[in-house]
Amino acid sequence: MSDGDCIFCKIVAGELPAERIDGDEHTIAFLDINPWTRGHALVIPRRHTKNLYEIGEDDLRHAAVASKRLARRMRDCLDCEGVNLINSCEPAAWQTVFHFHVHVIPRFNGDPLRLPGSPLKIDAASLAAVAAELRA
Ligand code: 5GP
Ligand code: ZN
Fold this sequence. Notes:
Elements: H1 7-13, E1 20-23, E2 27-31, E3 41-45, H2 57-78, E4 82-86, E5 102-107, H3 124-135
Antiparallel strand pairs: 1-2, 2-3, 3-5, 4-5
The structure holds guanosine-5'-monophosphate (5GP) and zinc ion.
């Protein structure tokens, strides 16, 4: 249910401070301590699971619903022009805190965020090859 060494479990338990902005039976949402934009928040399940590979489908659904609720709240209360949802799974994908979380990031025209990559140059045969691997 919880992991004694996990900072997000400590936030759920009230043992570490956080700017909580939303919550329900299954999730809480609080501001990221190092925000990428004004209002950048994290939605987490109350139950500890490491990441997307491990999370139960019900907690994943609850986190998705809470993320949508928060995105609409950001639109209505912060007047943002868009929202990004980001989830990182494992260090190779930038995960640094190992309690599943969704970044809910309000976006404003002209804000400093940029896409972190650019498209690979890939031909049709290579696309077909990777598609075949993923269908297996
Ligand atoms: P990840 O890198 O795993 O996708 O995201 C972890 C996020 O948690 C980072 O954006 C980081 O700023 C945030 N974070 C790390 N420690 C704390 C904390 O103690 N409190 C809060 N509110 N956010 C944290
Ligand atoms: Zn945890």
